[in-house]
Design goal:
By secondary structure, the protein is mainly alpha-helical. The chain has one domain. Helices cover 55% and strands 4% of the residues. It has 18 helices and three strands. A three-stranded mixed beta sheet has the order 1-3-2, with helices on one face. 43% of the residues are buried.
């Protein structure tokens, strides 16, 4: 989407810096580097050791000069942006991307990565941990047919392509054995990556369609259609908002379950275990032996928390969900949060830019947001009562 001459003339420095940053940050997608390349082998080793030997994960090498990229980020003449709100915003952008570069640079370097992760993503508060434990004290619901994992990754791909017919965007699809999740969206390449050897349940297909396509793909393609590149590359600290919106999409489409909420709660406890100094075996023991989670799920959640050297982002799914749930029930407009990789705390700048032509109305919507399809009163009670 090109700028008109008038907008270019009115905001030349902002547009110039936005374009410069776009060229610099193409490779700063942390999820492309954080997933170990030997997940399955290390899982076999860990299980055969009777859960007593910590996995030794390996990671793909970074393919950019991190130091040079930092220098170029900080060489941007932010002070030349006349509007104070926009100037402060782009300053925050640079600090945020600098932090992500430090994260990528230190993957696999133990506490060095963990402290960089803390700086970029934070760690659960006592309130977050209490919320997780509150959810976990509810009795499990009975499994129905929709919860049994029977679909292959190829069948899942067909389901997602069918789901996407309501949109006119085309994304790439690939399979991988190096995923710590069942599926993920690569924003920079507009790719949906599916875990090759995973079996999907009917409920999980619906969850992932509304989560990955309804929010992550919609915000990717809305961001690409915006005149400013930052909508696609990502606002500072956008992960909590994006994941909150994605899980909220599961809720609105009626496929969020107590089982799924518990999964997000275990992630909070696993992230919190990093702060307490637990190693991989310790986190696995907490989930498998104390909370009686089956070993496959306990391994996956422990892996998500310990990859890189201690990755703290996973608690943000639950905090993000609560934030978006409350905003929706206050009657707030969620459309600006679908305009790209936007952050809830920066929504005012989206409104400002819409007024002056630096942003445009969304090209794509999330259809789940049209009507609340949640019929589970227990879930409603839980979400209302999270602190």
């Amino acid at each position: 989407m090109a700028f008109t001459d008038t907008i270019l003339a009115n905001h030349p420095n902002l547009v110039h810096i936005d374009g410069n940053l776009n060229k610099l940050v193409q490779k700063i997608e942390l999820l492309n580097y954080i997933n170990p390349i030997n997940i399955e082998q290390e899982k076999r080793n860990f299980f055969s050791s009777k859960y007593n030997i910590n996995p030794r994960f390996h990671y793909r090498k970074i393919d950019f000069n991190a130091h040079k990229l930092q220098q170029e980020l900080f060489s941007q003449d932010i002070d030349s942006i006349e509007d104070e709100e926009a100037r402060n915003f782009y300053r925050d952008v640079i600090y945020d991307y600098s932090g992500l570069i430090q994260c990528i640079e230190s993957i696999g370097k133990g506490s060095k990565f963990y402290f960089n992760s803390l700086k970029s993503f934070g760690t659960p508060t006592e309130k977050d941990v209490e919320n997780a434990k509150f959810i976990l004290h509810f009795e499990d619901e009975e499994y129905d047919q929709e919860m049994f994992p029977v679909f292959s990754a190829v069948e899942a791909a067909e389901y997602f392509q069918e789901f996407t017919r309501k949109y006119d965007f085309q994304f790439n699809l690939k399979y991988s054995t190096k995923l710590s999740a069942a599926a993920m969206v690569q924003n920079s390449t507009q790719t949906l990556v599916l875990k090759k050897n995973h079996r999907f349940s009917a409920n999980q297909l619906k969850v992932l369609a509304n989560h990955e396509i309804g929010v992550h793909m919609v915000t990717t393609f809305n961001g690409l259609a915006q005149p400013l590149k930052i909508f696609h590359n990502g606002f500072p600290k956008n992960l909590e908002t994006q994941e909150g919106m994605a899980v909220f999409s599961e809720y609105m489409s009626g496929c969020l379950t107590l089982y799924r909420l518990k999964e997000l709660s275990y992630r909070v406890l696993a992230t919190d275990s990093l702060r307490k100094g637990l190693d991989f075996c310790g986190t696995f023991d907490l989930l498998h032996n104390q909370y009686k989670l089956n070993r496959e799920e306990a391994y996956t959640i422990s892996l998500r928390a310990h990859r890189g050297g201690g990755f703290t982002k996973d608690y943000l799914y639950l905090t993000g969900l609560k934030k978006i749930y409350d905003a929706y029930h206050r009657g707030e407009n969620l459309d600006p949060l679908l305009a790209g990789k936007v952050t809830y705390e920066y929504v005012s700048i989206v409104d400002s830019w819409l007024e002056i032509g630096l942003a445009e109305e969304n090209r794509y919507e999330n259809f789940a947001f049209q009507k609340n399809e949640n019929a589970n009163s227990k879930l409603e009670f839980i979400l209302q009562n999270l602190k």
